[in-house]
């Protein structure tokens, strides 16, 4: 396709998008109105499903298929990064150097590491009850583990970061979300339909399928981000080009 044809195609698509976007915006409720049809229906459905956190009810029940797409994007990003940053023939792994860490930084990091990990687990487990969930809790878990890098050095992080296990956990978390969707089909309903007992409102076991999907997302996001950061850190700290191997420079 020529450059002129691509430009014309772009302007045609842009015009169609502009018309559709304008039509959609004109149908929105007036700004500042007290009537929010979608919000009212979402909250009502969340209460009906015994999910105290309406946001989690939307993400993992009312529009769980969209959330599956979002999780798949992260999984694809991690997979793509691993492929792109894999070690090539002209690279070798060098010994990372230990940096100097202030005693106050070391102490603060060692204290915050278990606290942050515990907070991440709490956010994932209580996603159906309070603000948070698998995405937020997974990010906190990945951040908490890297306190070892801040408080000590890269070698300590490598010892507490089982990449082989986390690689599998990333795939298992993503696959579990997909597999759980078939429970609704097996029960004669729709894909990702909530088919588990709803439990008692406000309890940890409430929400039916929502806490299970939350846990799957938490495992996938936490493991995926750790693997993602490991790929970048390996390139920055360990991997050396053959022409720079003598000087110790990174790629």
Automatic annotation (TrEMBL):
Pfam families: MnhB. Keywords: Cell membrane, Membrane, Transmembrane, Transmembrane helix. The chain crosses the membrane at residues 68-86, 107-125, 137-156, 168-192, 212-233. Signal peptide: none annotated. Residues 110-226 form the Na+/H+ antiporter MnhB subunit-related protein domain. It is a multi-pass membrane protein. It is found in: Cell membrane. Belongs to the CPA3 antiporters (TC 2.A.63) subunit B family. This is MnhB domain-containing protein. It comes from Streptomyces bluensis.
């Amino acid at each position: 396709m020529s450059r002129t044809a691509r430009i014309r195609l772009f302007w045609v698509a842009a015009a169609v998008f502009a018309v559709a976007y304008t039509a959609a915006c004109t149908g929105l409720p007036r700004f500042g109105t007290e009537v929010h049809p979608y919000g009212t229906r979402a909250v009502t459905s969340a209460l009906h499903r015994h999910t105290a956190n309406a946001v989690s009810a939307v993400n993992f029940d009312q529009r769980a298929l969209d959330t599956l797409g979002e999780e798949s994007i992260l999984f694809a990003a991690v997979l793509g990064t691993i492929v792109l940053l894999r070690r090539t023939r002209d690279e070798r792994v060098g010994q990372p150097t230990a940096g100097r860490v202030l005693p106050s930084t070391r102490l603060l990091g060692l204290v915050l590491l278990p606290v942050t990990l515990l907070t991440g687990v709490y956010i994932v487990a209580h996603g159906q009850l309070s603000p948070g969930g698998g995405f937020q809790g997974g990010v906190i878990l990945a951040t908490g583990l890297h306190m070892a890098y801040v408080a000590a050095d890269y070698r300590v992080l490598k010892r507490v970061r089982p990449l082989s296990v986390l690689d599998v956990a990333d795939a298992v978390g993503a696959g579990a979300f997909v597999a759980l969707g078939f429970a609704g089909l097996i029960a004669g309903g729709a894909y990702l339909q909530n088919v588990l007992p709803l439990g008692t409102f406000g309890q940890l076991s409430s929400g039916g399928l929502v806490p299970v999907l939350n846990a799957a997302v938490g495992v996938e996001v936490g493991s995926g981000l750790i693997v993602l950061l490991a790929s970048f850190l390996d390139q920055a700290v360990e991997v050396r080009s053959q022409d720079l191997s003598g000087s110790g420079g990174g790629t």
